[in-house]
Write a structure and sequence with these properties.
This protein is an alpha/beta fold and 236 residues long. 31% of the residues lie in helices and 26% in strands. Strands 1-2-4-3-5-6-7-8 form an eight-stranded mixed sheet, with helices on both faces. Helix 1 crosses helix 7 and helix 3 packs across helix 5. The chain is globular.
């Protein structure tokens, strides 16, 4: 396995991330990861390492203002994340060792919302939404990080375009939920399960005794890592 630093542009800003390439010639099936708000792409290093060790390319990057990417987090909005996600996907699809016919997508929280939004942009064979958020269209200009982020998220979340996209997704879908989620409003994750009527397979993983930030719960984190590895090995 080889770990490679990568970067690409969004406007004048440079987004930076990491590529985990399996041993061998390829092309390889691949998974792109979108991290949550206030987090970084590093969150998925362990998942990508496990996938690469099993022959699946892993790629993650930092949204603007996060980790080692350019930008000021205080200026980042929910909508700007959509632009970052789309450009990140374009870079992912340009990787010459990627098998474009066997691609997967994973996103957590804010990243899960954006994963849902782009779920129809390419032929993703498999998607994992991890404690996925949902934002109404009226909140796309809302700052990514502010004191009222969580309370504002409750406003009309059922109208989120992310649900409309997932309702049309036809391939395999994994939805991960934290039993004691202390960030997402009640019903937000359940709504993704409710609308996913056209997916060829839907699996629901409930992480017991776990709050929203899964990485703070070692047992749940290990369960998630094992599930992501087995899920993408089975579905790509």
């Amino acid at each position: 396995m080889k770990k490679q630093a990568v970067e690409f542009k969004v406007g004048k800003d440079t987004l930076r991330g990491s590529l985990f390439i399996p041993d061998g010639k390829g092309p390889f099936p691949g998974v792109i990861f979108f991290h949550g708000s206030g987090s970084t792409g590093d969150t998925y290093f362990e998942a990508a390492e496990r996938l690469a060790g099993n022959g699946i390319l892993g790629f993650m990057f930092n949204f603007r203002g996060c980790g080692i990417s350019d930008g000021d987090i205080s200026e980042q909005t929910i909508g700007m994340g959509s632009e970052d996600a789309k450009v990140g996907l374009e870079y992912f699809m340009s990787i010459n060792k990627l098998d474009k016919n066997r691609i997967g997508l994973a996103g957590s929280s804010f990243g899960g919302f954006h994963a849902a939004l782009v779920s129809l942009d390419y032929d993703f064979k498999s998607i994992a939404l991890i404690v996925p958020a949902a934002y109404s269209p009226s909140l796309m200009n809302m700052p990514l990080i502010d004191d009222q982020h969580v309370s504002r998220m409750e406003k009309d979340f059922e109208k989120s375009e992310s649900y409309q996209k997932i309702a049309k997704f036809k391939n395999k879908l994994l939805i991960v939920q934290s039993e004691q989620d202390d960030v997402l409003p009640v019903g937000m994750v359940e709504k993704y399960l409710e609308v996913a009527k056209n997916a060829s397979k839907v699996e629901h993983l409930m992480l017991k005794d776990t709050k929203h930030r899964i990485k703070l719960f070692p047992k749940a984190k290990e369960i998630l890592l094992e599930k992501l590895t087995s899920w993408f090995l089975e579905t790509l």
